[in-house]
Design a protein that fits this description.
The complex is a heterodimer of chains A (550) and B (146).
Chain A: H1 9-19, H2 51-57, H3 78-92, H4 94-101, H5 114-119, H6 126-141, H7 143-147, H8 149-152, H9 159-168, H10 177-181, H11 188-201, H12 207-219, H13 227-245, E1 260-263, H14 267-270, H15 274-288, E2 292-294, H16 310-327, E3 331-334, H17 339-351, E4 378-380, H18 381-390, E5 406-409, H19 412-418, H20 422-431, H21 462-468, H22 470-483, E6 487-490, H23 493-506, E7 511-514, H24 515-522
Parallel strand pairs in A: 1-2, 1-3, 3-4, 5-6, 6-7
Helix pairs in contact in A: 2-12, 3-4, 3-11, 4-11, 13-15, 15-24, 16-17, 17-19, 18-20, 20-24
Chain B: H1 5-11, H2 13-27, H3 37-54, H4 61-71, H5 78-81, H6 84-93, H7 101-145
The chains are: A mainly alpha (550), B mainly alpha (146).
């Protein structure tokens, strides 16, 4: 019996097809969003991992290939591998299951992603990027959506879908800006992490991520620096510091029984401008007489395992704690890094913790108990230094940074992953006299990513990096024009590597600094000679040979 | 008698600029949108470039430099990116103005200037890539040395 209030399924389908909004326009009018082709071309893809790198890590499908190849040489049965991998992860990671099911497609995240803002590509809206995998999830794992295939937006997994995943989940830096605005609390970074894990199961990967992982697995740091070279490099900084300040600092290496183990990204030991930040740490520790040691084995704070797989992230993180145990330190002090802090702050305790063999961190200089680090036993250098300043333990001359007009870039993982906003600003305001904030919607929890995080800092990816970094660069341009800012200060090693080229392209004349480099400039050291140059050997304003001592 | 094209262009600034801006934004990847950051940044500079078209004393270098810097990293072929002033020519030619040679000459002059600027930005990108590669090599050599 027909009922005018209950349409037949084919009538309903016809009406649905006629009325549903169509986003694609022009030559793609009438097509579904997922019909828009993916085109790899110079500048928009990262080189895949070299076969020897995959062999070293025992990762799947080592081969020579390129994203521009028609045939990606996926392994036999790759569809099942992905299906089983997804099934396994939906079971193991509750968040993945919740994030697959809970999006209401409100679009609040759409214009929050720096890649969408910089590329204009709809598939870079976080909601749509996640839909690239949700559409497959719905098809394979939800009965209701499988039955109502035409209504639910589900689709079959094909090689083209894999190409699409590779393209767009490598145009997400896991910065989580979109998550700040998501009313459902979806953490898009964790979706990206899951998809990258799945892609690694079939050998679809990125050399700029996996080569550092292999290096870290072998030598303890992303750059593959061996222990003697690691130590030698820091000792060459000791020489530079002596030449500049007349003060001989005395770092120790692998010293058992030290109170504190200091771990920072290896970029601070071997990268420019990270080395100046390292010199700042060394001066600070000498200034307060800290009983610390540096490990040449746990010689990396960063954790590119996070961009690869849960197991690899766990392994790389564990190394720091194993070393702390071996050396018998009380707690760990961590340097200026981004994703190291997301791993430590949000995953470490349930992944490798509890670190019961360490003590709840207490500053040996001020007596401050860092209760926030009770679980991880690891304190961020910015809050350690802020505490020292607050207690008047540092002799600082902010005028020594008067040659710099600064602004501060909140590193995504420290700001959104730890909620640390004020400590670095407090330090910065105490070590320099000119500081201007970028616009409110580009800092603190709303900070814009550098555009190269999560292992996307490859030179062959430059065009996308420049586009992804455009929102951050625009905010810097704003304070440059308004306040003549020329110095971008940050607390992340990836930022120190990726922001200089971003500034060189969009804002020539803006230089990138680590926070503790400026601390090192401002510290008045006992027994120092007259300081005329900063740690980069650039002249300080008003501190020339002919200027009077202050 | 038809009037000088510069005069007509100045008188029709608002409508010409609106239509020109829409055409340029539509060329951007994803069809662009007036709300997007890239579109807003380009739109902001198009006004200054527009003024420089009809007024030789107005500064063209700065807006050209800023617009081409954005276009040089978009997924748009250079031929299309650098056609933005030809888009304006089409709009101007719809006006009842004497805009044969003098107008075309001016727009071609600015297009060639844009070409120089676009190439400069691409050169910067390659220089940045090159420098990153060089730093990597430098690091490898230092490791080998030690």
């Amino acid at each position: 019996m027909s009922n005018k209030y209950a349409l037949k399924p084919d009538e309903l389908k016809k009406e649905f097809e006629q009325k549903k909004p169509r986003i694609p326009k022009g030559e793609f009018a009438g097509k579904d969003w997922w019909d828009l082709p993916v085109e790899f071309r110079d500048g928009n893809w990262c080189f895949p991992a070299k076969p020897e790198v995959l062999d070293e890590l025992h990762f799947a499908n080592p081969r020579k290939w390129a994203a521009t190849d028609k045939d990606w040489q996926l392994p036999a049965g790759w569809e099942k591998t992905i299906h089983d991998g997804m099934k396994d992860r939906l079971k193991r990671f509750r968040s993945f299951k919740v994030f697959m099911d809970s999006c209401v497609r409100c679009g609040a995240c759409a214009d929050k992603c720096h890649f969408f803002l910089g590329t204009g590509d709809p598939k870079n809206m976080p909601v749509l990027r996640a839909e690239l995998v949700r559409s497959v999830y719905r098809n394979d794992f939800t009965t209701f959506a499988k039955i109502l295939k035409n209504f639910s937006g589900s689709r079959t997994l094909t090689a083209d879908v894999i190409k699409e995943w590779h393209m767009y989940f490598h145009q997400c830096t896991e910065c989580r800006r979109c998550s700040v605005f998501c009313p459902m609390g979806i953490d898009t970074a964790e979706i990206t992490m899951m998809v990258r894990e799945l892609l690694n199961l079939i050998g679809v990967n990125n050399n700029w991520i996996l080569a550092p992982v292999a290096n870290c697995n072998r030598t303890g740091n992303h750059l593959g620096i061996e222990p003697h070279t690691f130590e030698q490099n820091i000792m060459s900084m000791v020489d530079d510091i002596e030449e500049l300040t007349g003060v001989t600092v005395n770092p120790t290496f692998n010293r058992k029984g030290a109170e504190i183990l200091f771990i920072t990204p290896s970029g601070d030991v071997f990268g420019d401008p990270g080395v100046y930040t390292m010199m700042g740490y060394l001066l600070l520790f000498h200034h307060i007489g800290l009983d610390y040691t540096i490990s040449t084995y746990a010689s990396e704070g960063g954790n590119f395992g996070m961009f690869t797989s849960n197991e690899m992230m766990k392994k790389i993180n564990a190394k720091m704690y194993h070393e702390a145990k071996r050396l018998g330190v009380k707690w760990i002090l961590g340097g200026e890094c981004g994703h190291m802090w997301r791993v430590v702050h949000q995953y470490m305790n349930t992944m490798n913790g509890p670190a019961d063999f360490l003590k709840e961190p207490v500053s040996p200089i001020t007596g401050t108990k860092f209760t926030n680090a009770k679980a991880t036993k690891m304190v961020h250098i910015a809050e350690f230094t802020a505490d020292l300043i607050k207690h008047g333990k540092l002799k600082l001359d902010p005028k020594r940074n008067d040659h710099l007009r600064t602004t501060f870039h909140d590193s995504c993982n420290v700001a959104r992953g730890m909620g640390m906003f004020e400590e670095p600003r407090y330090v910065l305001n105490n070590v320099c006299n000119v500081f201007h904030e970028m616009p409110e919607n580009t800092i603190k929890e709303q900070t814009f990513c550098c555009g190269s995080g999560s292992g996307l800092n490859a030179e062959e990816f430059m065009d996308i990096r420049m586009r992804g970094g455009f929102p951050r660069a625009s905010a810097v341009a704003h304070v440059r024009e308004k306040h003549k800012v020329d110095s971008l200060v940050t607390i992340c090693a990836i930022d120190r590597a990726s922001l200089p080229p971003l500034m060189r392209y969009w804002n020539p004349g803006v230089t990138v600094y680590g926070l503790h480099e400026l601390v090192g400039n401002a510290l008045v050291m006992k027994g120092e000679k007259k300081r005329t140059e900063d740690l980069r050997e650039n002249p300080m304003a008003g501190f020339g040979e002919d200027d009077d001592d202050e | 008698m038809t009037r000088a094209w510069e005069q007509i262009v100045k008188e029709n600034r608002k409508s010409l600029l609106e239509r020109w801006t829409s055409s340029v934004i539509a060329m951007l990847p994803g069809g662009g949108s007036h709300g997007s950051l890239v579109a807003a940044a380009i739109a902001e500079e198009l006004g200054a470039l527009f003024d420089a078209v009809a007024d030789r004393s107005a500064q063209a270098n700065e807006p050209i430099m800023r617009i081409t810097r954005i276009l040089a990293v978009q997924e748009i072929p250079p031929s299309k990116s650098l056609s933005i002033l030809f888009m304006l020519r089409g709009l101007i030619e719809e006006l009842p103005a004497e805009c044969d040679h003098p107008c075309r000459d001016r727009l071609e002059e600015l297009t060639l200037q844009s070409f120089d600027s676009y190439m400069k930005h691409r050169e910067t990108i390659y220089q940045i890539k090159f420098d990153e590669g060089r730093r990597k090599m430098h690091m490898a050599l230092r490791r080998a040395e030690s």
